[in-house]
Amino acid sequence: MVLGIDKRCPVKAHTLAHMNLSIGVKFDRMLVAKLFVYLDGGFKEPDSCEDRSPHSTWGVCIVAEYHDGTQVICLSAGGFLSFLDTCSSYCGEILPSNAFAAEVYANILARVIMMQQFKSLAHCTSTPIVFMYDSTSADFVTSRNVVCKSQPVLVQVADIVDLLCSIALPTSSCHVHSHDMHP
Asked: What is the mean pLDDT of residues 8-12?
């Protein structure tokens, strides 16, 4: 494991370079000027009717930027959407599985993780947090009180979590097409 990522996991060249640069830098929350929270949802069509492997995933990577511009990966996490209301990580997602559900779920988990970890990542309570996303539709339903027919409960949960996060922390969001050149 390197920074929470399994060494067998394929990563983009710029992500690997960023990780390698971060390895030699010690994380110090006293130096943090800004936190970037990269989030993404993933979806893969089933290979066959018998394919029972998880098809929707989420990932979060938090990068701290110091006052001198140095950036350090300080947290990464990811997982699968369960779609089972008996699962402890269930947030209201319903089948059929799709990329939209994965992106909304990633928005929820990014905010939950940030609310849980903020004090360990930044010294100053006014440290800006920027959520970096690639799905404009998921961001739209996450940050506004809207009705969504395809994922009604998941979107409501996302809206509530975003509201709580934006009340508690100084947050903003930024769209990056396909996470170009981002970890």
From this structure: 61
